[in-house]
């Protein structure tokens, strides 16, 4: 059974337990999926209303995209868990000779790169979901404004959480050039989309307070 097929109670119990998975990467993917789902919900309360007829086509397009992001992030929950397994095995791998150590180092570098790929993908998808949350907040049903803001800030948290899973892996890389490339990519995403999420949240907060 895939982890996303478990109940909410089972998933959180496993996360709370003394086991290595689910961890920060898979949990951030799930949080991002929930954030994207909130965006789609705003869309569902917008389409079909005369008041929003002028923006309906745009909202429908946004809904299609947030739904795709939601599904892809759910897939990344399992992908992150699967990527951790070979890395975990390598950490416990014995290497008694120089040749074995060299081979372990080669495999470790590849596994670290692979383990960075999933959280980076989570970050990119959450970043796009934040952009879409901004659209929902500006043009979606005013009754659901708070949910648009929640979508943005949940996706921001998921994006930030995923970045930590990149950094923890790049810190162990021997190829520092590659590590710096990955770190810089994370920082650019966090800088641009973190600010955007904060802007959406701030505007929605003002509206909600009346």
Describe, in plain words, how this protein is organized in 3D.
With 210 residues, this protein is mainly α. The chain is built from six helices and no strands. The chain is elongated and about 75 Å long.
Secondary-structure map:
Elements: H1 8-16, H2 24-44, H3 56-91, H4 98-139, H5 145-170, H6 176-209
Helix pairs in contact: 2-3, 2-4, 2-5, 3-4, 4-5, 4-6, 5-6
Sketch the major β-sheet.
Answer: none
SSE string, helices as H and strands as E? HHHHHH
State the separation between the terminal residues, measured CA to CA.
46 Å
Kindly name the structural category.
mainly alpha
- Cα-based radius of gyration, to the nearest Å: 20 Å
Strand content: under 5%
Q: Return the average pLDDT rounded to an integer.
A: 93
**Count of individual helical segments:** 6
Helicity level: over 70%
Number of strands: 0
Summarize the structure.
By secondary structure, this protein is mostly helical. It is built from six helices and no strands. It starts with 7 loop residues before the first helix and ends with a helix.
Features:
210 residues; 0% strand
